[in-house]
Amino acid sequence: MRYRVPSRLADRGVSPRWFVASLLAVLTLIAASQSVDAAPGSEPARSGKGVTVAVIGDSLGDGVWSGFSLMWRNKPECKVVRRSKIGAGMTRADFPRWQQDLAAELAAESVDVAVLMFGLNDQTGIRDEHRRGFLFKTEGWKQLYQARIESLVRDLVQRKVVVVWLGLPVMRSTELNAGARWINGLVEEKLKALGVVYVPLERDFANPEGEFQPYLQDEASQRNRQIRLEDGIHFTHYGYELIAAKARAAIRQALLARDPGLQDAFAC
Q1: Under a CB-based contact definition with an 8 Å cutoff, are residues 102 and 76 in contact?
Q2: Could you tell me which CATH class the domain 51-264 is placed in?
């Protein structure tokens, strides 16, 4: 490669050889500085083991998906897959079809953990495959609902997916809250029998009396922040991030129980 000496330098009596030598010296310094940055002792720490989480559920589950997305927005190795749907429910007539579609989606992608949150839309009657109906809170309703929980969980476990189920939070409506607590009880009962992680949320977002509260003190800023929306059911973005953080802690514990070697390598 030939370098042309600028005319102004040539006019001042600067020789071409001196100019080329100076340029090569500068390039050598640049290369040396880059090699120092890439030295083994100064390499950036390797990222730890990531995880792919599928969030499955209704509109509350959809909010939890957004909470994970916000929490892991700067962690590309930690992925969250949206398998939630507004209006979804385990008492819906189309639940068997929905479960088949979910199985097909999970078969097409690699997922390590499934976080489930159902129940908001389930305080209604339910019908079995023979179109036989059961009213909410009856024994037949309970048996069919728990059977659907087991079917859903067993399908995930067979795929070697770690399952974490989130309970329903406290609701503003007295009637809705009573139904949510009843559903939480039977869900926890079934999951305990199946050996699946259940994360209760009833007390986390309630006041000392166990009642609904729309604000919660942020430990970092020491100020009250809104966690629930005006409908008395759903959460703000901040509230969903808090739920995602609780789910993350449960995920970490479940993964470490499966593989203790992740103690210092889990990046999420």
Answers
A1: no
A2: alpha beta
